Amino acid sequence: MPAPAHLLMGTGELAINQDFSISLSATSDPRLEIAASRLMAHMSKRTGMPLSPNAQRPVLMIECANSGQPVQSLDENESYKLSVTPQKAILSAPNPLGIIRGLATFEQLVVPSTAAGFAVPALTIEDAPRFPWRGLHIDVSRHWMPVEVIKRNLDAMSAVKLNVFHWHLSDNQGFRIESKQYPKLQTMGSDNLFYTQAEVTDVIAYARGLGIRVVPEFDVPGHSTAWLVGYPELAAAKGPFEIGRTWGIFDPVIDPIADYTYTFLEGFIGEMAALFPDAYFHIGGDEVNGREWDENPRIAEFKREHGMLAKTGTPSKNELKLSDEKLQAYFNQRILAIVKKHGKKMMGWDEILAPDLPKDIVIQSWRGQKSLADAVQQGFQGILSSGYYLDHMDSSATHYAVDPLIDPKTKQPLNLTPEQAAKILGGEVCMWSEYVSAENVDSRIWPRTAAVAERFWSPQTVTDPNDMYRRLDVLSEQLDWYGVTHRSSYTPMLDRLAGTETADTLRTLADVVTPVGLGGRARARKYTQQTPLNRLVDAARPESIVARRFAAQIEASDWTAVRAQLILWRDAPPPPQNALLQETAPVSAALKQTATLGLEALNFITSKQRPLPVWTMQATQILTDAKKPKAEVTLAIVDPIRKLVEAASQ
Amino acid sequence: MPAPAHLLMGTGELAINQDFSISLSATSDPRLEIAASRLMAHMSKRTGMPLSPNAQRPVLMIECANSGQPVQSLDENESYKLSVTPQKAILSAPNPLGIIRGLATFEQLVVPSTAAGFAVPALTIEDAPRFPWRGLHIDVSRHWMPVEVIKRNLDAMSAVKLNVFHWHLSDNQGFRIESKQYPKLQTMGSDNLFYTQAEVTDVIAYARGLGIRVVPEFDVPGHSTAWLVGYPELAAAKGPFEIGRTWGIFDPVIDPIADYTYTFLEGFIGEMAALFPDAYFHIGGDEVNGREWDENPRIAEFKREHGMLAKTGTPSKNELKLSDEKLQAYFNQRILAIVKKHGKKMMGWDEILAPDLPKDIVIQSWRGQKSLADAVQQGFQGILSSGYYLDHMDSSATHYAVDPLIDPKTKQPLNLTPEQAAKILGGEVCMWSEYVSAENVDSRIWPRTAAVAERFWSPQTVTDPNDMYRRLDVLSEQLDWYGVTHRSSYTPMLDRLAGTETADTLRTLADVVTPVGLGGRARARKYTQQTPLNRLVDAARPESIVARRFAAQIEASDWTAVRAQLILWRDAPPPPQNALLQETAPVSAALKQTATLGLEALNFITSKQRPLPVWTMQATQILTDAKKPKAEVTLAIVDPIRKLVEAASQ
Question: Which of A37, A470, A496, A535 is the best substitution to test chain B (most B C-beta atoms within 10 A)?
């Protein structure tokens, strides 16, 4: 996973034993050496076999035709060919990136076999990505993510062939990178939680070894409160400013007409452009509410002078809004000049789109395929993020169904010429960090991101969600070896909640609930950056494998298994009682109640009796109540049980 | 855990919220600052609460009367007093070590409470250790343990108040530390798996911050093959030598009469004595078979000259053995002079004991309390390791029952005067690494070592195994926060074995089996250092919690629970079939068979019927067969089911 473009199964298998070794065809790209030794280390870890340092006969031959570009570019060739016979494996590619992708494939294929200890099945794969831009965006501002979190996620990204790490480094809630030129950015804007430039350089080098570009984002002119704490002279309103502790669209905004702003940004962007080698530089540009621009007489005067507002009269609300958009376009033009001067192409969210921008900018669409289509029809390039927001807590299947080239409403391909379609470069999964910490962020990113990675890499025709889940479950376990904690953080988080009691009963409950999305959380209580994320909702995973398997048992009319499962839930003792788990009492009550209902329905089904309409009515009410979020989690077995009730009532 | 010497429960509890902070009474020992910030980090991690950096009112007040010694010594005061009220906690100690111990206690007390989110119960503890030497010995030679393994185990040691890390740095299978003076020791004797001196210094500093002494061991004159690979001129026989890949008592041995040996050891011990600040230096000294001494005419001549052998005639086997012991005593005397010259006290295994050694040496007894009593009766000091060998795969309760001052056979206190008894300084748990790797070593060390740590720290009267297990289960979960992987490595190891299938069925089996001890493994197959440790026996834990709970249910005549459990085992599908799991088929068959038998027994019991004698006879045979190790694991539910069968047959 992601499924390869072309796969031909062969006969037999290549045994992987302790003599496994690799040969590298001569090439000067150091990434190949790095990739080969990483593979050796991974193989040893995954199989639990010490590999012989003196193995003579190479089992895997790597043949790479050329060196790659000194800075990984958007249009580098990532194709590879992998051919495995019972005697040996040959991986060839025109470019080191293809080798890196092919090794990710090879690794996944190593599993215990019936005959040998470990083996790779004989096969031939010819593979290349569908889209050149396959990214993961991580917000490190709202909650801090240390370097180790970033690195392990880079490792896992590489395993599913993602190639862009979009690093959301500044926002209202924290400025997360060291500026040597403007040190108050980090000293006053980060609670001392920021990356040093040495760390950033290290992460970029690490990512390069994995075939991943690093695109930094510095969100301006909105989402910038953290900048203004140290440098209030950048602001459109009078300071002082404090680091944002809550979230949403804030008023503080950069002054787009002051010379100081551009002097500052010239210096800052120059510094960052030198630090980040990638060709693209993301300036954010989203969600400016314009309030502080509107209230600043100097700015109003500027607008009138520059024809953004009528010279006289009180502008209407709509006129003000339009004037703010023009003002932001003006700001963007000036930023663009700076970004270009430092050799970068500009990138931003939908809002930066303006006809007079150059066509080599990239629009990142959080608004959807329609917005993206508009952009490419105007000749811009774009990537899709709408539909890939992990904080909505949607299922892998939901994200998997979102295609950058298909209208989600009509399910039809976007109405684009091939040239226009080619300007849709791919997409990015977005991990916004309002409701995640370093402890549980991996469990939100993985394995769901792997489903989207397949969308970005594999042929458009690969769409079967059942087959996706079958492979995703295997991959999710394999990702453990890359160090991501999406599975391993679950147990300690449940143990913490259970305190000195066993967490077994809590686990039974946690296994069948999913966290509500960010809307549900915002409505449930007043969160700040300091609110502990240590509750059931934080430990629960975005998808319930148990509920999915239960639904499949119902689908298959496997009534014995369904009954056993329902009895288990009905009779499950409640989780331990303590202050942290108090809120879960209604959730366990709902589990018990729906399981009881499910058993009643099952009895009707298996005894071939029909319930009275009043039973069905009551059942529907129970399910409606059970479906409502409680303690910010949703009971994932309600929908499967509704199917049972429907089957019983038919 | 370990249970404190004096505990008085109070009324109410001290809430631990995000304003938790610590005050330190003025003192110059930097370990207090380290300990306080470690506690803050741990508190945040364990509770999942970001702590406020600006909290004003200290919740925990630390009062330390004096600074400690520059190098932690054997006789430093480790006592502390902890008093917790609903308003605040006060931790006081005469020495920073006491503060470190008290903080370990405080941490364990922080749990979710009924009223507040987290809290510590009101109480007063006055605590001090029973023994001053409470160690963990880790062999890093037979299997390599990277620095991270050592550090996380130091963290966990500190959590249970152990204070000596005994680092077994050289043996036949690897020389694991950099010598600048004799670099071929590590370059030729370690497969390039060794600690640099910088790493060693870092580990020692890390341990000091945790109140742990680091005692290095360089085993001579036997167990020294790895030395001889690079320096064959040290050997009593002609080389060349190769790193040992198997284990046992090897022939290669250092030449005890050559001047070169003592010049070399003078240089080497000098270098190591400067690197390791601890007052003690462990020279091993165990298991010399003498064969190569006996075969060397030069050495025979030396023995005759020095009265170790008769001047003429062919010595008997026994005379040779005695002469070798005398020769080793001679060697030890010369080593002692070197060790002393470099300011250290000597330490060694039982075999070094000789009347003419100075009384400040420490004998580490792998032979038992009797051997230890002999030593202290002669005026030496000693520590016990017999009974604390983790590779025997005994239960926590078994190790817990071993007391350094009690004869294991008679269960009576050793016949010692108080002065003699005081010379028994404590003990060390031993983790020999023939059958462990960095991946599963923690699961062998923890939680069992915590039970022994309680033996070393708590009053001798604390001996109830049920109470120990109740607390050990809680502690074992808490140890996750110290980074040891004794619980977390289980899932990936099972997943690896299951390959692309779910590991659920394998887990059901693995949960109720325990690995055989080192004897069982040696008999089962020919192991070498390169043999993969990736099988069921390597994933299985030394104690089965599931089997222990099952036994308790039988004990409590909780027949409903017992029946449910037995049905689950009887009906459990077999684990996935692949080359790695093939060997487990007889184990799952035995599980099914014993569970079926258990259900039959239960039916007799609950129906108050008596089985025919032939049933009992067959049952006994089934249990005998089931008890035999298969695939190097033992089925842990056989003994509980035997109780059922006995109850049914009575």
Answer: A496
- Closest C-alpha to A38, from A98, A111, A103: A103
Rounded to an integer, what distance in angstroms lies between the CA atom of residue B201 and that of residue B187? Answer: 20
Q: Rounded distance, CA B257 to CA B299, Å?
A: 7
Evaluate whether residue B568 is within a structural domain: yes
C-alpha to C-alpha distance for B598 and B592, rounded to whole angstroms:
10
Q: Are residues A78 and A171 in the same domain?
A: no
Assign residue A30 the CATH number of its domain.
3.30.379.10
Domain for residue A316, yes or no? yes
A579 → closest Cβ in B18, B116, B492: B116
Residues of B in contact with A107 (CB under 8 A): none
Q: What is the pLDDT of residue A28?
A: 78
- Pick B54 or A105 by higher pLDDT: A105
Q: Locate the chain A residue with the closest alpha carbon to B119.
A: A579
Q: Considering CB atoms only, which of A49, A499, A532 is closest to B50?
A: A532
Residues of chain A with pLDDT under 50: none
Are B431 and B136 in contact by the 8 Å Cβ rule? The answer is yes
Is B492 within 8 Å of A480 when comparing Cβ atoms?
yes
Name the strand (E) or helix (H) holding B498. Answer: helix B490-498
Q: Are residues A122 and A227 in the same domain?
A: no
A90 and A170 in a single domain? The answer is no
Q: Which of B63, B199, B266, B287 is catalytic?
A: B287
pTM for the structure as a whole:
0.94
- Let me know if A63 is a catalytic residue: no
pLDDT digits (tens, 9 = 90+) for B304-319: 999 999 998 889 999 9
Would you call B112 and A579 a contact, using CB atoms and an 8 Å cutoff?
yes
Q: Indicate the SS3 state at residue B130.
A: coil
- Flag if B18 and A532 touch (Cβ within 8 Å): yes
SS3 track for B418-459:
HHHHHCEEEEEEEECCCCCCCCCHHHHHCCHHHHHHHHHHCC
Nearest to A111 among B491, B499, B503 (CB): B499
How many independent structural domains does chain A possess?
Answer: 3
**Where does a domain end: A102, A127, A152?**
A127
Residue-level pLDDT at B354: 87
Catalytic member of A63, A199, A271, A287:
A287
A172 & A109 share domain? no
Q: Closest Cα of chain A to B468: distance in Å?
A: 14
CATH number of the domain where residue A300 is located: 3.20.20.80
CB contact under 8 A, B495 and A473: no
B585: containing domain: 490-649
Cα gap B609→A378, rounded to integer Å: 87
What is the predicted pLDDT for the residue at A69? 95
Among A74, A99, A127, residue at a domain's last position: A127
- Which tens digit of pLDDT belongs to each residue from A187-220? 999 999 999 999 999 999 999 999 999 999 999 9
Which residues on A lie below 8 Å from B567 (Cβ)? Answer: none
| Together in a domain, A502 and A643 | yes
Give a yes or no: residue B161 inside a domain.
no
Q: A94 with A186, same domain?
A: no
Same domain membership, residue A183 and residue A41? no
Cα separation, B195 vs A600, whole angstroms = 65
- Tell me the residue type at A261: T
Do A495 and B488 make contact, defined as CB atoms within 8 angstroms? no
| A143 to chain B: closest CA residue | B50
CA–CA separation, B393 and B537 (whole Å): 11
Instruction: Tell me the CB-side half-sphere exposure of residue B405, using CA atoms within 13 A.
Output: 19
ipTM: 0.90
On whether both A243 and A302 belong to a single domain, the answer is yes
Model confidence at B5, in pLDDT bands (50, 70, 90)? very high
Could B47 and A532 be called an inter-chain contact, meaning their C-beta atoms sit closer than 8 Å? yes
* Residues of A in Cβ contact (< 8 Å) with B497: 112
Is residue A141 a part of any domain in this protein?
Answer: no
